[in-house]
Design goal:
This protein is 52% helix and 11% strand. The protein has 340 residues and is an alpha/beta fold. The protein has a single domain, classed as Alpha-Beta Barrel (TIM Barrel). The strands form two sheets. The protein has a seven-stranded parallel beta sheet with strand order 1-4-5-6-7-8-9. Strands 2-3 form a two-stranded antiparallel ribbon. β5, α11 and β6 form a beta-alpha-beta unit. α2 runs antiparallel to α4. The two termini are 21 Å apart.
Length: 340
């Protein structure tokens, strides 16, 4: 028996659709809190395969989701490029203004990323054949925003200024990241992942040309590089905050198998405009899940109805919030799986 999620990515439509949640292995689970306490830090959990595997499996054990997603972080790639990453009230890393040194550090990337691959090798045998295992990476543009700013929260200012003032230098950074992200995704697929997701968390607020140059083209290069090694690789893209016009371009030009939709995207529009090219994933508002009750029921029903005739993977429009009650997740699963 094969995973229904991989079936959707391969062109099939299921009613009810397969279901998983972004950040499903996280702080809303008491078992996660216990493991986090044992590890001492989030980053230690990411870098310790036994702990990362345990956290990856926890939501699947509790809820029976249709997919497990590797417990890791998008900043493992900058760390593999030689940047010291820390988490203290948000991610911190050295601010860079050039690619000097990154290529040399990249030669040792496999050792730095080995914990992620070992985690996948530990998790895969613990899952049934009907549960997909997902890997992931940050997209080149999103990683560039963190590396240029030395962390998050500057709303792309440092990366945009670098790209505007020094296009050639910024293009070189994107080249380094396209190569690193591609290799990391291939490594995850070879270690047991059934599919991978590319998170472009900072895809919002770009000019049409910027979105084309910094989001679409680099992602298309990553997809092509992965498929040059693994032609059948299944890839989900998440350009969070993209305009509707941007989403059309992304779906048409990147080569991904599915586009994950953020909360603001109308699923009916996506089914009409994107559904012939890609599967759709999403996009329940995490706050509707937090609210529970009628708000949750209405949100789920609207997505299921709008996506009924599309290849749909049910998910959230962004990650689950830490304060979400477990009972509301159980309600979500019952609503989705009880649909017909």
């Amino acid at each position: 028996m094969s995973s229904r999620l991989i079936g959707v990515l391969s062109g099939k439509n299921f009613v009810p659709p397969p279901l998983w949640m972004m950040r499903q292995a996280g702080r809303y689970l008491p078992e996660y809190q216990e493991t986090r306490k044992k590890a001492g830090s989030f980053w230690t959990m990411c870098q310790t395969p036994e702990l990362a595997a345990e956290v990856t499996l926890q939501p699947v054990r509790r809820f029976g989701f249709d997919a497990a997603i590797l417990f890791s972080d998008i900043l493992t790639v900058p760390a593999a490029l030689g940047l010291k990453v820390a988490f203290d009230d948000g991610p911190k890393l050295p601010t860079i203004t050039s690619t000097q040194g990154l290529e040399r550090a990249h030669e040792a990337w496999a050792a730095a990323l080995a914990p992620a691959y070992e985690t996948l090798r530990l998790v895969r045998p613990a899952l049934g054949a009907d549960t997909a295992l997902l890997g992931f990476a940050g997209a080149p543009w999103t990683l560039a925003t963190y590396m240029a700013a030395g962390g998050g929260g500057d709303e792309q200012k440092a990366a945009k200024l670098w790209a505007y003032r020094d296009p050639a230098g910024f293009a070189k950074l994107i080249d380094v990241l396209v190569d690193a992200v591609s290799r990391h995704l291939v490594g995850q697929l070879q270690a047991g992942a059934d599919a991978v997701q590319i998170f472009d968390s900072w895809a919002s607020g770009l000019t049409p040309q910027g979105f084309k140059d910094w989001v679409v083209r680099p992602t298309a290069r990553v997809v092509a590089a992965v498929r040059a090694v693994l032609p059948e690789a299944k890839i989900i893209g998440f350009p969070r905050g993209a305009t509707l016009a941007g989403l059309e371009r992304y779906a048409r030009e990147t080569g991904v198998d599915a586009v994950s939709l953020d909360t603001a995207v109308p699923v009916g529009w996506a089914a009409e405009k994107l559904g012939d090219d890609v599967a759709l994933q999403g996009n329940l508002d995490p706050l509707a899940l937090l609210a529970g009750g009628d708000a949750l029921a209405r949100g789920v029903a609207a997505i299921l109805e709008a996506g009924r005739n599309s290849r749909l993977v049910f998910n959230l429009g962004h990650g689950i919030l830490p304060e979400t009650p477990i009972a509301h997740v159980e309600q979500l699963i019952a609503l989705v799986r009880g649909s017909s």
